[in-house]
TrEMBL record:
InterPro entries: Adaptor_Complx_Large_Subunit, AP1_complex_gsu, ARM-like, ARM-type_fold, Clathrin/coatomer_adapt-like_N, Clathrin_a/b/g-adaptin_app_Ig, Clathrin_app_Ig-like_sf, GAE_dom. Belongs to the adaptor complexes large subunit family. It is found in: Cytoplasmic vesicle membrane; Endomembrane system; Golgi apparatus. It holds the Pfam family Alpha_adaptinC2. Keywords: Cytoplasmic vesicle, Golgi apparatus, Membrane, Protein transport, Transport. It is a peripheral membrane protein. Residues 700-815 form the GAE domain. Signal peptide: none annotated. GO terms for cellular component: AP-1 adaptor complex. Gene3D superfamilies: 2.60.40.1230, Leucine-rich Repeat Variant. It comes from Xiphophorus maculatus. This is AP-1 complex subunit gamma.
Amino acid sequence: MPAPIRLRELIRTIRTARTQAEEREMIQKECAAIRSSFREEDNTYRCRNVAKLLYMHMLGYPAHFGQLECLKLIASQKFTDKRIGYLGAMLLLDERQDVHLLMTNCIKNDLNHSTQYVQGLALCTLGCMGSSEMCRDLAGEVEKLLKTSNSYLRKKAALCAVHVIRKVPELMEMFLPATKNLLSEKNHGVLHTSVVLLTEMCERSPDMLAHFRKLVPQLVRILKNLIMSGYSPEHDVSGISDPFLQVRILRLLRILGKNDDDSSEAMNDILAQVATNTETSKNVGNAILYETVLTIMDIKSESGLRVLAINILGRFLLNNDKNIRYVALTSLLKTVQTDHNAVQRHRSTIVDCLKDLDVSIKRRAMELSFALVNGNNIRGMMKELLYFLDSCDPEFKADCASGVFLAAEKYAPSKRWHIDTIMRVLTTAGSYVRDDSVPNLIQLITNSVEMHAYTVQRLYKALLDDISQQPLVQVASWCIGEYGDLLVSGQCEEEEPIQVTEDEVLDVLEGLLVSNLSTPVTRGYSLTAIMKLSTRFSSVNRIKKVVSIYGSSIDVELQQRAVEYNALFKKYDHMRPALLERMPIMEKTASNGPTEIVQTNGETEPSTVEAKHPPPVTQPTNQANDLLDLLGGNDVVPVIQTTIPTKPVSAGGELLDLLGDLSLSGGPAPAPAPSVPTSQPPFLLDGLTSQPLFNDIAAAGIPSMTAYNKNGLKIDFTFERANPNPNIAVITIHATNSTEAEMTDFVFQAAVPKTFQLQLLSPSSNVVPALNQGTVTQVIRVLNPQKQQLRMRIKLTYTHKGSAVQDLAEVNNFPPQSWQ
């Protein structure tokens, strides 16, 4: 048989291929020749054939049929054969294949070989792909080589020990005696690998961490020698002595100094020296400074040192390199909660980063800017952020608008400023605001009694300029319906009042009903606003005509409203003023409105649950039945009289949400649920006709539990018992996010076996804030009449860093007190 071609010739031949098909043909032809050679047990050219096979593997072609040939090469006595054999084993084998166990004995023999280079090959292979079984069998040989005087072998043995510890953590103590002497080595390669080994051991074992804290002075001395030593051509990188070793030592110091006063005190001086003496003109110096900053922030360092670290990050913000600016912004975002005042000094530089062309830098700068907002700088920061909102890309508008809303709610210097700021957001980025912005602004306006005339006038002007921003149009429609009489009377004191007639106001609202830009929700707001104006304006006949027209609308929601309003005009006109009177001051609740999502055994279905309103006053049964008849037809159930003593309220006050237009969910209210016989109230309502959904909740001393902890998202369960039904467990979920980016569109779903019944109420938010800065809560009620062990399957969906994430989990470790 002729000699096979050399590897160099094969590479040259493959590179001449003009098409993918031609290259495949060459590879297949050569693979066939290699297989034939393997079958004939050709020892002469086995090394050459395996080398060619590895090259094909690197190109992405299958090379698994060469695995056993690698083992044969490893067993050879020739160094050239062993070198290719071990390389092939590292590339073609892993611990998922049983073949790798066949080489354990060969590696053991080579670890005891008389030639250091053969020993080095065996160490590299074990450290690369050794399974837990191999590591257990060969750990003794690795530990022996760790004590040898040969620095070439010691550095390879240290890295191999790192792999052994990762695979078999209980073998860590075996390497403890050998690691004590590694830091006294002069060879930088051994020092580097020994620091990596110490770092791995400290991260995996609190006992090792406590044991190695006494090495801090020695590590400080090594680091000091590195920064104070002169030029060393062997280790110099851009004028800095062995930056790789410096970075590794700084990381180890960070682990050793965390939550330890003595260790932190011992390293304060050297950290200050590194921070002040390191050259920043080259990227190498910046890498060391960044590690220094992270170490200063993680240990219990002095306040002056922390200010120095933040000033270094401030200098990074002025760097021309985008990556360095991004790293600085991310680091400042982590430290802003603990060193707020120091970060505030760099506020102007951070705000300038909002104008950066790079979207990643822009997003980090926006998040950091919102974190810097406080009561002292709210006006200036909001001015910059609103300017950013005007000019930023659409992908930023939703997050920026949400941040402005939260900051304004927390730090607003006055109600007028608060209202002006939110209206500015709605006029510039109304289409991007989140769903809860409309009810939140409505609540703010309602509670600012002295600003009603000013607000309705501003909103009316905005409506004349632009009706494309639907949230703005919805808020304006609601306010005009509530305070239209103030608009027409011209009672505004804050600015010059405008002269508006009733017909002009109605023209604008009717225009919204027929506009192609209006969504069905907006049309519902507009129709309800027109209906409310029937008690505030004198143009009742015109309003009747408009309402009657929409009684035959193809939009079922709009049609239902119009039919109900027509019935008010005809049959219940005496009740209309009470029903349509002005809204009282609202209380903010965590609920998003009366429509909750009820889950029974994993199936989602909408259910109308009582919203939280002021306690209803007792009304005569026949009048209440008339109102039910208005909503649901003739088939009604007599209303159960409440026994809760209540304070009298204005006539019709208990009916404030009857028509649905005042729903805080930002949209029209859902159709009422069918009447339920009162003899057997369903579980989901539990006879709540005379009491709120969550009546007395009694803490039962049930321990909390962690149901889910993955990818930075943590779900904790806390438990309570509901009175008077002890069979109902009330579970409150608490979702937190430890990552650097918030989790949006967060949805928690749950399912239980058929012997249970489950009710899942609305969450407090659909955004889980980053860095554990907030918690999303949600209430689950579980009926367990048979007192069986509670089991639950949960489904989590959310968006994180622009990617949709979905995960399932089983929860079977509920505390017995929660279900017994």
